[in-house]
Design goal:
- The chain is mainly α and 206 residues long.
- It contains six helices and two strands, in the order H-E-E-H-H-H-H-H.
- Helix 2 packs antiparallel against helix 3 and helix 3 packs antiparallel against helix 4.
- It has a two-stranded antiparallel sheet with strand order 1-2.
- A hairpin with a 2-residue loop joins strand 1 and strand 2.
Length: 206
C-alpha cells in the first residue's frame, strides 16, 4: 500500500508543480516591468485583475478537488484492485493535462483576448467532465458520485459561452464588460460549488 501511495504522490507532485507555475505566471502577468532610464519599475496592469480573480476562482476548487480525490481513492483504496494502475494513470495524466490547460489560461488574462480565455475555460470544463465519467468505470462504487461537479462544469461552461455567442463586435468598452462578466460568473460558480459540496471539500471530523 505504501508503494501505491508513493506512485500517487508522484502524480500529485507533477500536477501541483504545473498549477504552481500557472499561478506564478498569472501573478507575474499582472506586473509589467518598465525601464525608466537606468532603473526598472513595476507597473500593475489593472485590466488583468478581473481575469486574474476569475482564474483564481477556477484553480482553487480544481486543485483542492484533485487532492481530495487522490486522498479518497488511494488512501481508502476505492478502486478495483486489478485496475488500480490503469485508474491511477488516467487520474495522473488527466490532471496533468488539466493543469497544463490552466497554465495556458494564466497567459490569457489580457482584456483584449478574453474570447480565448473563455474558450479555454470551456475546454477545461469539458476535459474535467470527460475525466469524471471515464474514471467512474474503475471504481467499486455503483453510484456516480460526481454529478454535482458535472453540474458545476456545465453551469460555468454555459454561462461563459453566453458572451461568446452574443457579442459580435469587439471594442474596449465591450472587452471591459466581458472580463467583469467573466469574473462575476466565476465567483458565482465558486460560491455555489462550495455551498453545495462543502462537506466533500471539508469533511467533518469523525
Amino acid at each position: 500500500m505504501d508503494e501505491i501511495k508513493q506512485v500517487a504522490s508522484f502524480f500529485q507532485g507533477l500536477y501541483a508543480l504545473i498549477i504552481g507555475l500557472s499561478l506564478t505566471e498569472a501573478i507575474r502577468s499582472v506586473v509589467q516591468k518598465e525601464n525608466l532610464g537606468h532603473a526598472k519599475s513595476s507597473v500593475l496592469k489593472f485590466d488583468h485583475f478581473p481575469s486574474l480573480v476569475g482564474f483564481f476562482c477556477i484553480v482553487l476548487p480544481f486543485y483542492q478537488g484533485m487532492g481530495r480525490h487522490f486522498f479518497d481513492e488511494y488512501l481508502h483504496f476505492n478502486y478495483k484492485k486489478a485496475d488500480y494502475s490503469t485508474a491511477l494513470m488516467i487520474d495522473g495524466l488527466s490532471f496533468l493535462i488539466e493543469a497544463s490547460v490552466m497554465f495556458c489560461m494564466s497567459t490569457l488574462l489580457a482584456k483584449d483576448i478574453w474570447r480565448l480565455f473563455f474558450k479555454v475555460t470551456i475546454v477545461l470544463m469539458a476535459l474535467d467532465s470527460l475525466w469524471a465519467v471515464t474514471i467512474w468505470q474503475f471504481t467499486e462504487s455503483e453510484h456516480f458520485k460526481y454529478w454535482n461537479f458535472l453540474g458545476m462544469n456545465a453551469l460555468l461552461g454555459s454561462l461563459i459561452a453566453i458572451p461568446l455567442l452574443v457579442i459580435r463586435k469587439q471594442d474596449e468598452k465591450t472587452d471591459t464588460y466581458a472580463i467583469f462578466y467573466g469574473m462575476f460568473v466565476n465567483l458565482l460558480v465558486l460560491i455555489v460549488n462550495y455551498i453545495i459540496n462543502w462537506n466533500w471539500y471539508f469533511p467533518a471530523i469523525k
